[in-house]
Amino acid sequence: MTVRDVKDVLGARVLAGEEFLDREVKSACGSDMMSDVLAFSKDHSVLLTGLCNPQVIRTAEMLDIVCIIFVRGKKPDESMLEMARDRGLVVMATGHRMFSACGMLYQAGLHGGAI
Fold first, then answer.
1. Which domain of life is it from (predicted)?
2. Residue 115 domain-assigned?
3. Residue 77 gets which letter from DSSP?
4. Inter-CA distances, 72 with 7, 75, 86, 99, Å
5. Residue 114 binned pLDDT confidence (cut-offs 50, 70, 90)
6. What is the rounded distance in angstroms from the CA atom of residue 42 to the CA atom of residue 14?
7. How many domains does the chain have?
8. pLDDT above 70: residue 113
9. What's the CATH code of the domain at 48?
10. Residue 19 lies in a domain
């Protein structure tokens, strides 16, 4: 699956990194707790979160996350989007709740894997 496929499944809006939509995505992680993301996320994954602060961008950079999707209609401010652009991250937003968005991606074939 690619980031573009994820975008299409969720009907998400691209806020930054449109030039990277063809990157491969291997798994997904949904959490508002960055400590859980650090513990359980895998390489080349998508992060779904409602947490809208710069720590999300820093966490994604550390873990080789290729795309951040803000759920529940959350929208990061311009400074966060600039941080993401500087790091080559795709940032998207969707109006879906996290549970629904994760389920939609799972149903489309994107899994998180066992702990």
1. Bacteria
2. no
3. -
4. 15, 9, 25, 10
5. low
6. 22
7. 1
8. no
9. 3.40.1390.20
10. yes
